[in-house]
Amino acid sequence: ASDQDLSGMSVLVTAGPTVEPIDPVRYLTNRSSGKMGYAVAGAALRRGARVILVSGPTALKPPHGVEFIGVETAREMFDAVLAHYPHVDVVVKSAAVADYRPKEAAQHKIKKNQDQMTIELEKNPDILAELGRRKTRQILVGFAAETKELEKNALRKLEMKNLDLLVANDVTRPGAEFGADTNIVKLVYPGQIIVQLPKMDKKTLADRILDEALNLRASSQ
Ligand code: C5P
């Protein structure tokens, strides 16, 4: 990638897990580290883009110079992303958004006076699907972490969410697990085009994803 080839462009990146409260001291979440999204945000910044990073809680420091919006729940992420969507050029949606949230978060700490307890869950909004519905000129890049039927699920998501590119990884493969510094992915494009990439550093992959987004943007204009 040449220097500053993203200058003049706005890139919205989501990263990390969401956390969904059960009561004031407990929550549901997942194993996302945020490394992939932060790498994309850092790479886009280095290449001259304006970068908005919407992130759930992670142990990482936001790259210096990004516009950082910290969120906890999927609904907060939804609001932050939708608010910025109309004026960005590229969206890279690497956050692991919780599919379900506790139906009601208890006001007070739940006491352990039952032998068994049930938490009722309800579905969170699918942020990326909503972006797909509202897409005008943005290049939309999604991620999919799967443990089986990777290609089939990836093709289905690409189509259902109206994406331009889906980065699919099998999280059961060594080197592609949650929290790793490397990833092994397939790039999936409309028209059932699937490109297997070798195992690479998340930073290298971040630049590769931005290269692809730039190409897609050039060919859609
Ligand atoms: O369907 P699945 O959750 O595997 O899709 C993954 C992609 O969709 C990721 O890019 C993720 O950030 C996005 N997503 C979302 N909102 C959700 C669930 C997933 O934006 N509620």
From TrEMBL:
Location of the DNA/pantothenate metabolism flavoprotein C-terminal domain: 6-214
Phosphopantothenate--cysteine ligase: annotated segments: 11-221
EC number(s) stated in the UniProt entry for this protein: 4.1.1.36, 6.3.2.5
Signal peptide segment: none
Recorded superkingdom: Bacteria
UniProt keyword list: Decarboxylase, Flavoprotein, FMN, Ligase, Lyase, Magnesium, Metal-binding, Multifunctional enzyme
Cofactor(s) this protein requires: FMN; Mg(2+)
Residues the entry annotates as binding CTP: 99, 109, 125-128, 143, 157, 161
Gene Ontology BP, a term: coenzyme A biosynthetic process
Pathway: Cofactor biosynthesis; coenzyme A biosynthesis; CoA from (R)-pantothenate: step 3/5; Cofactor biosynthesis; coenzyme A biosynthesis; CoA from (R)-pantothenate: step 2/5
Cofactor remark: Binds 1 FMN per subunit.
Entry GO CC: phosphopantothenoylcysteine decarboxylase complex
Reaction(s) the record says it catalyses: (R)-4'-phosphopantothenate + L-cysteine + CTP = N-[(R)-4-phosphopantothenoyl]-L-cysteine + CMP + diphosphate + H(+); N-[(R)-4-phosphopantothenoyl]-L-cysteine + H(+) = (R)-4'-phosphopantetheine + CO2
A GO term for molecular function: phosphopantothenate--cysteine ligase activity
Biological role: Catalyzes two steps in the biosynthesis of coenzyme A. In the first step cysteine is conjugated to 4'-phosphopantothenate to form 4-phosphopantothenoylcysteine, in the latter compound is decarboxylated to form 4'-phosphopantotheine.
Family the UniProt entry places it in: In the C-terminal section; belongs to the PPC synthetase family.
Protein name as catalogued: Coenzyme A biosynthesis bifunctional protein CoaBC
Organism annotation: Pelotomaculum schinkii
